[in-house]
Amino acid sequence: MIFAKSKPKKRITLRPMTTFSMLPASSFMTTNASLYIDEHLSFSATRVEEESDYYELAWCDAEEIALLSSIVVGIHPDHGKAFLFPARWPFYLEDNGEDLSNPELLAEIVDTLKNEIAVRFASGKDTNSWEELPPFLKNRPYEFNSKLNSTEYHLFLFEHIKPNDTMLIRGLSHLLKCGMLRCLGRSFVDTACLEIYVSLEATLQIILNRLRLAGNPNPTNRDASNYLLSAFNEPAISERYYGEYYDDRIRAIHPNSRFGAAKFTPLYVDDLYMLYNDLLRTYEFLITGVPNSYMVYPTAR
What is the enclosing helix (H) or strand (E) of 117? Predict the structure, then answer.
């Protein structure tokens, strides 16, 4: 197997998972995208088509966001979390229509990836960040979470996350980045808050757009809030969308606001964790159209 020397327009993107990740204990494999799990080298393999738009700060392709999000969002809330921390340096294959759920193909990719990563690491090319290396090159194992929902549910989510849905991909991208920053430790919790507030804003814009399509020409934040609350059978009425976090967003983004100046971000860690949990269920609803749809599918034991 020979990797492409440059990024093809039609390609299979291979991205190793770093040891910061909390991975599912078993692989998730589909024809067009797979997350291959191995204790020495786990990686994603995703079929990608080049977009016309260019974003210098794009850290993953939209198809990769769809794959990773289907794993992260689709976990039963009683079964912990998955945090996927992919390396920033991908590898590429020319897309010749390979079935990415083929175990023999994935096993061949593993062997080739190990060799290519080792060569790059030895030369210093692209892998000068030692912390992003997989376990076979550093003395730090992956962490695994064995209590995940069924493969069918993750596939259901993956099929409903469309790479051309700009706002959904943008919001999920920041939700994944929030989880990645959490993996780096408490020192980056304040930065994770900024990521999650962008992800929160994306859910608002998605709902406002749906309300417009439903016939409301000028929906308000209150309309969006009540749309979400009614979907989850919550009796409360809120003037602001996720109103309980409104003041925190101001404190986090503005170093000097009507709440005063602060030397450090004046937030509590638990607020980030609670908002992250809430957004997992909100995105699940926006993806599937069904609140708490994880309950429909059996969980893996």
Answer: helix 103-123
